[in-house]
Amino acid sequence: MSRRLVFAIPGDLATPSGGYAYDRRMMAELAALGWQVDHLGLPGQFPEPDAHAMASVAGQFGKLPDDALVMVDGLAFGAMPEIARHEAKRLRLVALVHHPLALETGISEAAAKHLATSERAALTAARAVVVTSPATAATLRRDYGVPQDRLNVILPGTDRPDPSSPTSAADGPPLILSVGSLIPRKDHATLVAALGALLDLDWHCRIVGSDIQGGGTAAELKRQIGELGLQSRVELTGAIRDLAAEYRAAAIFVLASHYEGFGMVFAEAMAHGLPIVACAKGAPEEFVPAEAGARFKPGDAAGLAAALRGLLADPERRALAAAASRKAGQALPNWPQSAAALSEILERLAA
């Protein structure tokens, strides 16, 4: 059996997002397990490639040897159905779906319909489909017609924090931490609106995330922060590669994201024992226990403000939520465990 994998990923592999972090870490962990992992870099226009990008991808796949085992990140796979179906005749294709393309917030109804149709067609060409949560698997079974026997759930790994690392969470006002790219789906605007209703309480907030992918989202957030008079209390930090210090300094983790295929930042925050405030549909509903914090409806700034107020005003409740969060976080797999599970699937396909 050949332990060689081609991993096709669109755009810049160093992009600071959960999906790209999953890809990078799996490549490294699979290599540690003895796999030769060849990175095939695809054009960055996905999931909306132009004709030139599609021609480039067709040429790249056409050069791969027959029977090659090829895993394709879902950001590209769902948008290349014709190439996938053509190459499935000679390549062993694996689709890695972080979350369905049509569920991205902020796209038009027509665009969502087109992406759903495209991804549904592409997935018929995959010998196996790897997803990062049971919730995404259920969505692909129900809405995309992917058979159960081709679905494989591989949760992202979660690094355990160094217990000897110092924490600064008790210094100064409670720090509210939110981590997510400044794109519409993360809905930081609802968080900022909620914070505007909490000016009577002592707190500081850091919103950590790249501002290069969301069009005018970052500029709109800055305007909103200014209008609410929150400039001295809400900080947009931009992308930060190593988040460990951010988690250690925080008292509460919050993300107003409407949907997450998994939500690695939730798992990381849980591993650090942070109370979790979330509304995300999908995987976070499955692995973040209710007792680990508080929940609110998507886009409900008043509900989010109430959830935060309850934790900020009651240190004992915050401590209980933190303990429940840490306990649940310890039950999640680490990266070597996740990679070993993926390796087993790939071995079966390579045999």
Structurally, the number of domains stands at 2
The CATH H-level superfamily of the largest domain is Glycogen Phosphorylase B
Described by strand count, sense and barrel closure, the largest sheet is: 6 strands, parallel
Mean pLDDT score, rounded? 94
Main β-sheet, spatial strand arrangement = 2-1-3-4-5-6
* Distance between the ends: 5 Å
Principal-axis shape equals globular
Under CATH, the topology of the largest domain can be stated as Rossmann fold
What do these coordinates show?
The chain is an alpha/beta fold and 351 residues long. It is built from 14 helices and 14 strands. It has a 6-stranded parallel sheet with strand order 2-1-3-4-5-6, sandwiched between helices. The protein has a 6-stranded parallel sheet with strand order 9-8-7-10-12-14, sandwiched between helices. The chain has a two-stranded parallel sheet with strand order 11-13. α8 links the parallel β8 and β9. The longest helix is centred in the C-terminal third of the chain and has 16 residues.
Would you spell out the secondary-structure blueprint of this structure?
Blueprint: E1 4-10, H1 18-32, E2 36-42, H2 51-62, E3 69-73, H3 74-77, H4 81-87, E4 92-97, H5 109-123, E5 128-131, H6 134-144, E6 151-153, E7 175-179, H7 188-195, E8 204-208, H8 217-227, E9 234-238, H9 244-249, E10 252-255, E11 259-260, H10 264-271, E12 276-278, E13 281-282, H11 284-287, E14 293-295, H12 301-312, H13 315-330, H14 335-350
Parallel strand pairs: 1-2, 1-3, 3-4, 4-5, 5-6, 7-8, 7-10, 8-9, 10-12, 11-13, 12-14
Helix pairs in contact: 1-14, 4-5, 7-8, 7-12, 10-13
